[in-house]
Amino acid sequence: MKDQVNNRIDNYGGSLQNRCRFALEVVEAVTKEIGADRVGIRISPFANYNESGDSNPEALGLHLANCLNKCGILFCHVVEPRMITAWEKEDCSQSLLPIRKAFTGTFISAGGYDREDGNKVVMKGSTDLVAYGRLFLANPDLPKRFKLNAPLNQYNRDTFYTSDPIVGYTDYPFLEDMI
Question: Which among 3, 18, 27, 66 is most buried, taking Cβ atoms within 10 Å?
Fold first, then answer.
């Protein structure tokens, strides 16, 4: 969908509408098959991993939000612009707020949140829900730890995306196991 990597010259390239066409066709097909109340999408218009950015990520996100509203899907899960890479976050002037205001379904933000940051953005109305991917991976009882303000296991990035079905995904200790 991003203009820095989509070099197509057919109906799926060029304009913003064309670059978003495939994703929206998939959403429409899945919605038709199983119902909009069971469909969500994750987008990262601001991400620029491997030089795959967009010259106007806010316009991309807004266009998608408005089109997704027409599909009536349940949620839109969006990666914060502060996540400059999968490993780094930084303060930035860009915000998901315009996309959040445009999307009428449940809005989920992801982007290196901790308990305090997540609570703040929900309370400010900047998002409906917060995704805690890496924290949840390392803390299978994350809601309990948040409730008790208990210490968190640190995730080990070296074990992400490995072929080992156990190490890194199911071997983090529960809070009870640590006491």
Answer: 27
Axis-axis angle for helices 57-71, 16-34 (nearest 10)? 30
| Whether this model's pTM surpasses 0.85 | yes
What is the rounded CA–CA span in Å between residue 137 and residue 173?
Answer: 11
Q: Helices in 7-163 by DSSP H: which ranges?
A: 16-34, 57-71, 97-102, 115-123, 133-138, 142-148
d(Cα 65, Cα 173) in Å, to the nearest integer? 38
Nearest Cα residue to 129 out of 76, 89, 179: 76
- pLDDT of 67-114, one tens digit each? 999 999 999 999 987 655 555 666 665 688 999 999 999 999 998 889
Q: How many Å apart are CA 178 and CA 34, to the nearest integer?
A: 42
Sheet with 40-43, side-by-side order of all strands: 40-43, 75-79, 106-110, 129-131
How far is 59 from 46, CA to CA, in rounded Å?
A: 10
Question: Rg of the chain over CA atoms, in angstroms?
Answer: 18
